[in-house]
Amino acid sequence: MHLFYLPGKNLGEVYRTGEVLQELPADEAGHLRVMRLKAGERLRLTDGLGNFAEAILEDPGPKKFTVRITAITPEDPCSFRLIMAVAPTKNIARFEWFIEKATEFGVDEIVPVWCEHSERTKLRTDRLQKVAVAAMKQSLKATLPIIHEPVSLQQLFKRSEAADHRFIAWIDDQVTLHLKDCCQPRKDTLVLIGPEGDFSKQEVQQAVQSGFRPVSLGKARLRTETAALAACFIVNLINE
To answer: Is the pTM of this model over 0.85?
Structure first.
């Protein structure tokens, strides 16, 4: 069954208050129109907040699609949160690829960060949000990651993201501790991934002073988006 996204509402609260008739947004209605669904057919919704909703198509248009919610099923709770702070790549398609795959893994938050060696200076978070929505629906998840507006590395250090552990992936011969050996299960985790030119030594020093622990992701030299996805995989594997 296809999954459709109804943003801006908590479907659990909507159902409890009896607001079972809901109108789908224009882009989701467009998908339904292409599928030529008819009144009475069943479909599944998510609010991106962890709720699935079973629904029946009441009014198939032509200008709007109204559905009747019949049941709510919360997504299975997760015992940890994963926040990825990643320097956007020069080639935006590679960063969008990371957004897509990280959403499939179930990352909770993505914070784009500007670093000393960053080659990209602009970013459209609205476009990244669309990539994440599509990935959420494709992977049949009910939780949409929060994609923050870009911040400088110094701003990130000053922010108070709630994470039990903070790691910075750094390519340096002195860093021998692998993320898999220090990441602990059921702990909120923040992993910081640098740009193609890696972090400067000063940035790493600032990170350490801000509570980040330098870690390795292995011997292979990875692209930014590959390193970020590898970190997602490692943290999720530790929490299996």
So the answer is: yes
